[in-house]
Amino acid sequence: MIDRPDLAAMISPLSRALIDAELPVLREHGLSMWAYMVLLALEARPLRTQAALAESIGADKTRIISVLDDLQRRGLIERTPDPADRRARLLSLTDEGRRVRDSAQTGIQAKEERLLSRLPPEDRQGFLNALRTLAALPPDQITNP
Protein backbone atom coordinates (compact mmCIF):
# COMPACT_ATOMS: atom_id res chain seq x y z
CA MET A 1 0.00 0.00 0.00
CA ILE A 2 1.31 3.44 -0.94
CA ASP A 3 1.54 5.95 1.89
CA ARG A 4 -0.27 8.86 0.21
CA PRO A 5 -3.78 9.79 -0.88
CA ASP A 6 -4.86 8.91 -4.41
CA LEU A 7 -4.01 11.55 -7.02
CA ALA A 8 -7.68 12.28 -7.82
CA ALA A 9 -8.42 12.66 -4.11
CA MET A 10 -5.73 15.34 -3.90
CA ILE A 11 -6.32 17.02 -7.26
CA SER A 12 -10.12 17.19 -7.24
CA PRO A 13 -10.52 19.54 -4.22
CA LEU A 14 -7.59 21.64 -5.48
CA SER A 15 -9.14 21.85 -8.93
CA ARG A 16 -12.52 22.94 -7.52
CA ALA A 17 -10.85 25.62 -5.39
CA LEU A 18 -8.81 26.89 -8.35
CA ILE A 19 -11.96 27.11 -10.48
CA ASP A 20 -13.75 28.99 -7.68
CA ALA A 21 -10.80 31.42 -7.55
CA GLU A 22 -10.94 31.92 -11.33
CA LEU A 23 -14.67 32.63 -11.58
CA PRO A 24 -14.55 36.24 -10.30
CA VAL A 25 -11.74 37.05 -12.76
CA LEU A 26 -13.70 35.51 -15.62
CA ARG A 27 -16.85 37.43 -14.60
CA GLU A 28 -14.84 40.67 -14.70
CA HIS A 29 -14.03 39.86 -18.32
CA GLY A 30 -17.54 38.74 -19.22
CA LEU A 31 -16.43 35.14 -19.75
CA SER A 32 -17.83 31.81 -18.68
CA MET A 33 -15.42 28.98 -17.96
CA TRP A 34 -16.35 27.40 -21.33
CA ALA A 35 -15.73 30.68 -23.17
CA TYR A 36 -12.32 31.03 -21.52
CA MET A 37 -11.46 27.44 -22.46
CA VAL A 38 -12.40 28.21 -26.07
CA LEU A 39 -10.18 31.29 -26.13
CA LEU A 40 -7.28 29.30 -24.67
CA ALA A 41 -7.77 26.39 -27.08
CA LEU A 42 -7.92 28.61 -30.15
CA GLU A 43 -4.53 30.08 -29.39
CA ALA A 44 -2.97 26.62 -29.48
CA ARG A 45 -4.28 26.13 -33.03
CA PRO A 46 -5.81 29.25 -34.53
CA LEU A 47 -8.01 27.47 -37.09
CA ARG A 48 -10.11 24.49 -36.03
CA THR A 49 -13.48 23.04 -36.80
CA GLN A 50 -16.18 23.47 -34.17
CA ALA A 51 -16.32 19.70 -33.65
CA ALA A 52 -12.54 19.45 -33.12
CA LEU A 53 -12.63 22.38 -30.73
CA ALA A 54 -15.45 20.83 -28.70
CA GLU A 55 -13.59 17.53 -28.49
CA SER A 56 -10.33 19.20 -27.45
CA ILE A 57 -11.94 20.99 -24.49
CA GLY A 58 -14.24 18.13 -23.50
CA ALA A 59 -17.46 19.87 -24.47
CA ASP A 60 -20.45 18.49 -26.32
CA LYS A 61 -20.35 20.02 -29.80
CA THR A 62 -24.03 21.01 -29.63
CA ARG A 63 -23.55 22.68 -26.23
CA ILE A 64 -20.58 24.74 -27.38
CA ILE A 65 -22.53 26.42 -30.22
CA SER A 66 -24.12 29.02 -27.92
CA VAL A 67 -20.69 29.82 -26.42
CA LEU A 68 -19.25 30.30 -29.91
CA ASP A 69 -22.25 32.42 -30.93
CA ASP A 70 -21.67 34.71 -27.95
CA LEU A 71 -17.92 34.98 -28.53
CA GLN A 72 -18.51 35.80 -32.20
CA ARG A 73 -21.21 38.36 -31.37
CA ARG A 74 -18.76 40.06 -29.01
CA GLY A 75 -16.04 40.12 -31.68
CA LEU A 76 -13.72 37.76 -29.80
CA ILE A 77 -13.66 34.99 -32.41
CA GLU A 78 -14.37 34.60 -36.11
CA ARG A 79 -16.07 31.62 -37.73
CA THR A 80 -15.55 31.20 -41.43
CA PRO A 81 -16.63 28.41 -43.77
CA ASP A 82 -13.92 25.84 -44.41
CA PRO A 83 -13.07 26.02 -48.12
CA ALA A 84 -12.50 22.24 -48.11
CA ASP A 85 -15.88 21.51 -46.48
CA ARG A 86 -18.50 24.27 -46.56
CA ARG A 87 -20.46 22.51 -43.78
CA ALA A 88 -17.57 23.02 -41.33
CA ARG A 89 -16.54 26.29 -39.72
CA LEU A 90 -12.96 27.35 -39.07
CA LEU A 91 -12.43 29.27 -35.85
CA SER A 92 -9.89 31.93 -35.03
CA LEU A 93 -9.27 34.51 -32.34
CA THR A 94 -9.63 38.18 -33.16
CA ASP A 95 -7.23 40.77 -31.76
CA GLU A 96 -9.90 41.65 -29.19
CA GLY A 97 -10.27 37.97 -28.32
CA ARG A 98 -6.52 37.77 -27.65
CA ARG A 99 -6.67 40.91 -25.53
CA VAL A 100 -9.56 39.63 -23.41
CA ARG A 101 -8.00 36.17 -23.09
CA ASP A 102 -4.60 37.61 -22.11
CA SER A 103 -6.14 39.98 -19.57
CA ALA A 104 -8.19 37.19 -17.97
CA GLN A 105 -5.20 34.85 -17.94
CA THR A 106 -3.03 37.52 -16.29
CA GLY A 107 -5.62 37.93 -13.52
CA ILE A 108 -5.95 34.18 -13.03
CA GLN A 109 -2.22 33.61 -12.96
CA ALA A 110 -1.76 36.40 -10.41
CA LYS A 111 -4.03 34.44 -8.07
CA GLU A 112 -2.11 31.27 -8.86
CA GLU A 113 1.18 32.99 -8.06
CA ARG A 114 -0.06 33.71 -4.55
CA LEU A 115 -0.83 30.02 -4.12
CA LEU A 116 2.44 28.84 -5.68
CA SER A 117 4.43 31.21 -3.47
CA ARG A 118 3.63 28.89 -0.55
CA LEU A 119 6.00 26.33 -2.08
CA PRO A 120 9.80 26.54 -1.84
CA PRO A 121 11.23 27.59 -5.25
CA GLU A 122 12.65 24.13 -6.05
CA ASP A 123 9.35 22.41 -5.15
CA ARG A 124 7.40 24.99 -7.14
CA GLN A 125 9.38 24.39 -10.33
CA GLY A 126 9.21 20.63 -9.87
CA PHE A 127 5.45 20.80 -9.31
CA LEU A 128 4.93 22.89 -12.45
CA ASN A 129 7.17 20.61 -14.53
CA ALA A 130 5.35 17.49 -13.32
CA LEU A 131 1.94 19.08 -13.91
CA ARG A 132 2.90 20.11 -17.47
CA THR A 133 4.13 16.59 -18.21
CA LEU A 134 1.03 14.88 -16.85
CA ALA A 135 -1.40 17.39 -18.39
CA ALA A 136 0.16 16.82 -21.83
CA LEU A 137 -0.55 13.08 -21.75
CA PRO A 138 -3.31 11.86 -24.05
CA PRO A 139 -6.31 10.78 -21.96
CA ASP A 140 -5.94 7.14 -22.99
CA GLN A 141 -2.44 7.05 -21.49
CA ILE A 142 -3.97 8.08 -18.16
CA THR A 143 -6.93 5.72 -18.22
CA ASN A 144 -4.95 2.80 -19.74
CA PRO A 145 -1.32 3.23 -18.64
Automatic annotation (TrEMBL):
Family annotation (Pfam families): MarR_2 (PF12802)
The HTH marR-type domain, residue ranges: 4-136
Entry-linked SUPFAM superfamilies: Winged helix' DNA-binding domain (SSF46785)
Protein's recorded name: MarR family winged helix-turn-helix transcriptional regulator
Lineage of producing organism: Bacteria, Bacillati, Actinomycetota, Actinomycetes, Streptosporangiales
